[in-house]
Design a protein that fits this description.
heterodimer; A: 310 residues; mainly alpha; MetI-like fold; 2 domains; 17 helices; 78% helix; globular; B: 317 residues; two-stranded antiparallel sheet; flat
Chain lengths: 310, 317
């Protein structure tokens, strides 16, 4: 056993790039990796800068003078932030549970080889990958037919079910749960519901986790549904709020004539500072940033399964 | 046997349906929520494409609005807008479509060659980070670099004696910027698929190759890349449908929807959005959407047909 292992290692040791190449590769990749992370550090740096530091030195990763007022103010007066947090957490949790459940049920049906209507059920989601109605008809159906404008349901329902996720789940179920097991359960008198809830759900946990994380990240980061369908400030999700803050600032800046009127001066004073904007960004993103190294594994798994031909 | 067949034949269609539902009704129930969802949110809008041929009024709704034939399309193609947004959408996506696999596959191979695997893993984790940021977050990060008063780019310009500008009204850099931002956000994630696919290649191939005296370069060229061909092609076809779809986040949020940049940043999706929300021109935005859906559909079908002719294994369907 030990010998085998050392053999494997020794092959990897023979068949590897030259030490110099290794160093060059490491340097290249390190540059890429640092480039990926640096902008986030910059945002963090700005969010804890004092105003003077920004005026004199501009944005810096390590500010010349620290000041945590932006965070203090956000927590003190930030009712919009709190509202948006509530909306986003509610939407994310409900969507994840609902979406995973619905797609798992559907995927189970597709995994059932003897089911005569399987072809039809496979085609329905598949065709949505090829063709879509697009933004305008969706918008009109959601607002004028389903009346979902300004409701929390549109935030949950938009993009909840995706054909890609269904395919990943179906591949996962057929790949990990042997058909014989389901057949045996059926012979023992289990009906399709029992098989699904007692056998498939427990055994497909890893697949469910993967899809759950896809949905979770998507929903947490979704700003578009909020921008399109939400007016009520009580229902604005975090990422949409972030985009609105940015737009407010731009609007005032680009209309200097407004800034010189009395009303404009009031607006200008109430305008969030650069630090506040960056602090808000940090607060909307931190949950995902802290969590993602832990669920990276599931993401990789999901992508790998999903790329198997459906 | 023959009796059984006879009996089966005797059963009418209606009877067979009843038997099917008696045996399988539970599966239909399980499929129902998703099916309803897809019908309401994916298929109903497809019928809504008829809007492109109507003069839509909220008061009269879908079914009773006046038919106007191709007038909405005329409106779109009469201006230079149609050409501009199509050019931008297709050019940017074509660049993304080519650069992404090339860079991602290269990165994956390089990752695989690093001596200390733990270091490679750590770098990978850092590289994937931007993928978990939403485009509104990316927009603000970009602002951190481009801000006229405090941004990093203008700091550099000041230090080196270059021109300090308002980059949000300066067109020439945006094609490059958008490509860089796209790569920055997506490349780590894209490379993961290929890293996984490399680890799935049997070591035996490499051992045999080493015995024959193959260099690392030759191994990559004759073993690694050919083994990844399937997955590269599948990813390519799947993304090809997006050739005509512009990411609103990238082209609208990141550019701060700056009108001065439209010539290089306006894509079909941002145009449709604007026509719908700002101008309130439902007919024209629907026509643009229709044009987009049809072209996207044709692209995927044609690509898949070609791939199936050349290499059936790599075809998507």
């Amino acid at each position: 056993m030990a010998k085998e292992k050392s053999n494997g290692n020794s092959f990897a040791r023979i068949n590897r790039v030259k030490p110099l190449t290794n160093v060059i590769f490491c340097i290249i990749l390190t540059v890429f990796a640092v480039t990926s992370v640096y902008p986030m550090l910059l945002v963090l740096g700005v969010s804890v800068s004092s105003s003077e530091a920004l005026t004199y030195n501009g944005f810096k990763v390590i500010p010349s003078e620290f000041n945590f007022d932006a965070y203090k103010n956000l927590f003190k007066s930030g009712s919009q932030l709190v509202d948006s947090y509530k909306v986003t957490i509610f939407v994310t949790v409900v969507s994840t549970v609902l979406g995973v459940m619905m797609m798992a049920m559907y995927a189970f049906v597709l995994a059932n080889k003897r089911f005569a209507a399987r072809k039809f059920y496979t085609f329905v989601p598949f065709f949505t990958m090829l063709f879509s109605g697009g933004l305008v008809p969706s918008y009109i159906i959601n607002t004028n037919v389903l009346h979902l404008y300004n409701t929390v349901w549109i935030l949950i329902l938009s993009g909840l079910v995706s054909a890609f996720n269904i395919v990943v789940l179906r591949t996962f179920i057929t790949g990990t749960i042997p058909e014989e097991m389901m057949d045996a359960a059926a012979i023992d008198g289990a009906n399709d519901f029992t098989v699904f809830f007692r056998i498939v759900l427990p055994l497909a946990k890893a697949g469910l986790a993967t899809i759950g994380l896809f949905v979770l990240v998507n929903k947490w980061n979704d700003w578009f549904a909020g921008m399109l369908y939400i007016d009520n400030p009580k229902l604005v999700p975090l990422q949409t709020m972030l985009s609105r803050i940015q737009k407010q600032i731009d609007f005032i800046k680009n209309n200097s004539s407004i800034a010189s009127t009395p009303d404009g001066l009031v607006l200008l004073k109430s305008m969030p500072t650069e630090q506040t904007r960056m602090a808000t960004l940090m607060l909307t993103t931190l949950p995902i940033l802290f969590a993602y190294p832990f669920f990276q594994k599931y993401f990789i798994q999901g992508l790998t399964i999903g790329s198997v031909k459906g | 046997m023959s009796v059984a067949v006879e009996q089966k034949r005797k059963k009418s269609f209606g009877q067979r349906v009843i038997i099917h539902f008696k045996r399988y009704w539970r599966l239909h129930v399980l499929a129902l929520p998703c099916l309803l969802y897809l019908l309401l949110f994916n298929y109903a809008p497809m019928f809504g494409l008829t809007l492109a041929f109507q003069d839509y009024k909220v008061s009269t709704g879908f079914l009773h609005s006046e038919w106007v034939g191709l007038k909405n399309f005329e409106f779109l193609f009469k201006t230079t807008d149609a050409w501009r947004i199509t050019r931008n959408t297709v050019c940017y996506n074509a660049v993304f479509l080519v650069i992404t696999p090339v860079l991602a596959v290269t990165l994956a191979i390089v990752f695989n060659e690093i001596y200390v695997k733990r270091y490679a893993k750590a770098l990978q984790t850092m590289l994937i980070m931007p993928n978990f940021l939403s485009m509104t977050v990316v927009a603000i990060i970009v602002y951190g670099f481009l801000s006229q008063s405090n941004g990093i780019l203008n700091q550099i310009m000041k230090a080196t004696g270059g021109t300090v500008r308002n980059w949000y009204t300066y067109k020439p850099i945006w094609p490059f910027l958008l490509v860089i931002i796209y790569i920055w956000k997506n490349i780590g994630y894209s490379s993961i698929v290929y890293v996984a696919s490399i680890s799935g290649i049997s070591q035996d191939y490499y051992e045999a190759a080493v015995l024959d005296g193959a260099t690392k370069w030759q191994q990559a060229k004759y073993i690694t890349i050919p083994h990844m061909r399937n997955i590269i092609v599948i990813m390519f076809i799947m993304n090809l449908g997006g050739l005509i779809r512009g990411d609103i986040g990238l082209f609208q949020q990141v550019t701060q929807d700056s009108g001065a940049l439209y010539e290089y940043t306006d894509v079909i999706d941002t145009y449709v959005y604007r026509a719908l929300r700002t101008l309130g021109n439902t007919g024209m935005s629907a026509a643009t959407g229709f044009y987009q859906s049809v072209v996207g559909f044709i692209l995927v079908i044609v690509a898949n047909t070609i791939v199936r002719r050349v290499d059936p294994d790599s075809a998507l369907f």
